[in-house]
Amino acid sequence: SSTFYCIGVSPVTLTGTGATTYSWNNGATTSSISVTPTATTIYTVVGTTNGCSSTQTVSITAPPITSINATANNSVICANGTGATLTASGANTYTWAPSSTVSSTLGVNPLSTTSYSVIGQTSAGCITNSAVVTVSVLPTVNPTLTATSPSVCLTQTVGILSSPIVAGLTYTWAPTTAIQGSSITSSVVVLPTTTSPVIYTLTVSNGVCTSTGTISIQAQIAPIGNFITLNNDTICVGGCVTFSANTTGSSPISYQWLYESGVGTSSVGIAPEACYPSAGSFSVTMIATNGCGSDTVVKNNFVSVFDYPVLNTSNDTTINIGETATISATGGLSYYWSPNINGNTIACPTCSSTVVQPTVTTNYIVVASNSPYCRVQDTVTVIVDVNCGDFFIPNVFSPNDDGLNDVINVHGRCIMTFNLQIFNRWGEKVFETSTLSESWDGSFRGKKLDTGVFIYKADGVSIDGKSFNLKGNITLLR
Q1: CA–CA separation, 41 vs 19, rounded Å?
Q2: How many Cα neighbours within 13 Å face the side chain of 358?
Q3: pTM for this structure?
């Protein structure tokens, strides 16, 4: 059936014809035999009819089993990292195990050290010896960094520890300018030189795999105290003063307040209040403390208390956004309303009765006086019913001039200001607008763009002072 035999595949069939009996040199006496030679072999058959014999021979070529090569472009890899490519050569086709992939190359990324075998087949159809290639996998060490103290004062040191600690690893810390001593150990002592956060980075390597960990250290400074009043330091008898600390220093800062002749509704906090039942000039003391120290501030004769006018104000009211409200006060000789947001919310800040048009719920404070010193205040709240809904940009439009969904822009009620930018897939800006009257029609530089996906980002502020940010994809359909 063939004069060529590949070792390990189907046998070759030899058939003798033209005689009555047959005798083969391998001992067979049938007309047909199956042979699987291990090397090139000559087979002889003697055919006999009526005592007359004839001899024929046939040579079967059986090439030896060949070997192939298998290599890896990276025989040592990191767990969960970049894998390796295995390449076989020396045959015509290749089959890999254990994946059964038929290809000269095989991409692998094992989680543990794994051996891969490959067998080949020559162009003549002969099977080769298998080749084995091993990919070793090294574990990746992901360091976790912790500080020996949750906080540190400026000019003081703190330790940073890494874990886990594994033998054979190398450690490299940065920035070295803010580290005392060695920067190539598993733990370091750091000395922050600024109150800005310092990001310390540790690079860990086992010779092949490299991982990093970071930790932020922010140094604190002791407080330098100061305080003011939020309403007035000149009040009427029975009036109250709200103080506000504007202390510098690192947070958290705690406060202790002392009021001369004042009755404090609170003696702690950043903005406490004290009420004064009698006239006079009184001192106020504030002690500010954090983990790095404390500061005491005493302001003598800081609060002046005088007789007060009787002030009456209008009731709180509710309006819809965009409407106006009238607020009023009586009982004083002069008045001042606040806050006068953007200079136009309060029509007349010094009138006893005035018109306001807030865009958000606002507490309007009126300060009335009937003398150069004594002032009292009250608050009228104008509640603004705001229903702006959601802000959105459609994710698909079809600028085909059919009058439906032909342009794209930001949608939503109560938009005060905004900016919309649209980019193509190469990052090139194809449209930008800050007005609702100017929408994108799917063109760029006067040319209609083809169907595609574009990226947008938009940010803005609603009339109630809230900001919004939008980003996503827009599909243009033609």
Answers
A1: 23
A2: 23
A3: 0.42
